[in-house]
Design goal:
Blueprint lengths: L1 H5 L3 E4 L5 E4 L10 H12 L20 H15 L3 E2 L5 E2 L1 H6 L24 E2 L4 H13 L4 E14 L2 E14 L15 H13 L6 E4 L5 E11 L2 E9 L1 H7 L3 E7 H6 L16 E10 L4 H12 L3 E10 L8 E10 L8 H19 L2 E2 L3
Parallel strand pairs: 3-6
Antiparallel strand pairs: 1-2, 4-5, 6-7, 7-11, 8-9, 9-10, 10-11, 12-14, 12-15, 13-14
Length: 371
């Protein structure tokens, strides 16, 4: 009580646990109970208050697989020269209709806003591609020569009465290569640049991509593929159709991946594989084959015939020329043979190589071509 009186405050004792304090008019800063407690502690001396350390449970922040996936993809794409963009979720109605088959079917319909900001932003986007194209057009118009951009965001569509919202990530390349001693001067970015970027991003999760021909209205015929992991479709990739090139005034390659589908195929456990003890044995094979035969089918046949001793069969050259037979193309693969038990000799590798050549000839009519 003495401390309260020293502050110049009057008080009334209501009961054993309550004290009603009348604050003097010259102390307008004392407005709450904690203000009064602070004043009493100041007069009493802070050193007279016993130290009590707070006790609390600290729970670690758990990162979900989707959050981890998003972080790694963004980091990887940024490291290889891509820039992240953020666009509005609202686009023109015509654009939403044109790109509604990006991650859906023709039965999907666009979702219109009841009170849009403007006529150009009256519909929810059904794909991330229109926003990337608008960004690319603006940057090319301001003198930017090389465009390598990506975006992660939500898309929206309507199937019957059901409203759908999904998280996608997409990327676009356009324009010419930046000045680099490793790139041909003046050459444009192409499909293989974008393909390499997607494979590099997914390689962080030890995922291997497969491709199969597909069709999207806004992408060129014969220049569109679906991207699969373990037989599950996770997205698509391709070049803009000639109609879209005329509409936007630029050629570009794009891909768009469904994050929900990608998370479903992520490996749950990553196991360590010991480094091989024995060296690899290398062989190159270059064949003439019909243009209609996909290189993926050839690689699959080579791996199946090569058996467990064939580690990889990597395509490193695809060549078409008038100097070759009509209707033919040249494919060159780098074959890597390795045994976990011993060093392979030529006598062990050569029969496997001959068996691969024979299988290619019997199934596709392929013949060896000298390198």
């Amino acid at each position: 009580m003495t401390l309260v009186e020293r502050l110049g405050f009057k008080f009334e004792k209501k009961n054993a646990d309550e004290l009603l304090v009348h604050v003097a008019s010259f102390r307008p800063t004392i407005a709450r109970e904690v203000d009064l407690i602070e004043e009493v502690a100041r007069l009493s001396g802070y050193d007279s208050i016993a130290v009590a350390r707070p006790l609390a449970a600290i729970n670690p922040v758990r990162v979900s697989p989707k959050q981890n996936c998003v972080r790694k993809i963004k980091e990887t794409l940024c490291h290889i020269g891509y820039s992240e963009v953020i666009n509005y979720s609202f686009i023109e109605e015509t654009l939403s209709e044109s790109f509604k088959t990006a991650c859906g079917t023709v039965e999907n319909t666009a979702i219109s806003l009841s009170n849009p900001i403007s006529a150009e932003m009256k519909t929810m986007r059904s794909s991330l591609i229109p926003g990337l194209l608008e960004t690319a057009v603006k940057n090319l118009g301001k003198g930017q020569k090389s465009i390598k951009i990506f975006e992660l965001g939500n898309i929206y569509c309507k199937t019957g009465k059901e409203l759908l919202e999904r998280t996608n990530f997409a990327a676009l390349v356009s324009g010419t290569y930046e000045n680099n001693v490793w790139k041909p001067h003046g050459k444009n970015h192409d499909y293989y640049d974008l393909k390499g970027a997607l494979e590099t991003a997914l390689a962080q999760f030890r995922l291997t991509l497969e491709y199969r021909p597909s069709r999207r209205e806004f992408l060129g015929a014969g220049r569109t593929v679906e991207c699969l992991v373990g037989g599950r479709v996770i997205g698509y990739m391709g070049e803009l159709s000639s109609q879209q090139v005329r509409q936007w005034g630029l050629g570009a390659c794009v891909f768009e991946v469904d994050m929900e589908q990608l998370v479903q195929v992520l490996p749950s456990v990553v196991r360590f594989v010991p480094l091989p003890k024995y060296p690899e044995t290398y062989r190159d094979i270059s064949i003439l084959i019909d243009k209609s035969v996909p290189a993926k089918e050839v690689a699959t046949l080579i791996c199946s015939v090569g058996g467990p001793l064939l580690g990889t069969a990597e395509l490193y050259d695809c060549f078409e020329s008038k100097k070759l037979e009509e209707g033919k193309k040249s494919l060159a693969f780098a074959l890597v043979f390795q045994s976990p038990e011993k060093t392979l000799t030529d006598d062990e590798v050569n029969p496997l190589f001959d068996r691969i050549v024979k299988a290619l000839g019997e199934k596709y009519g392929a013949t060896l071509r000298s390198l």
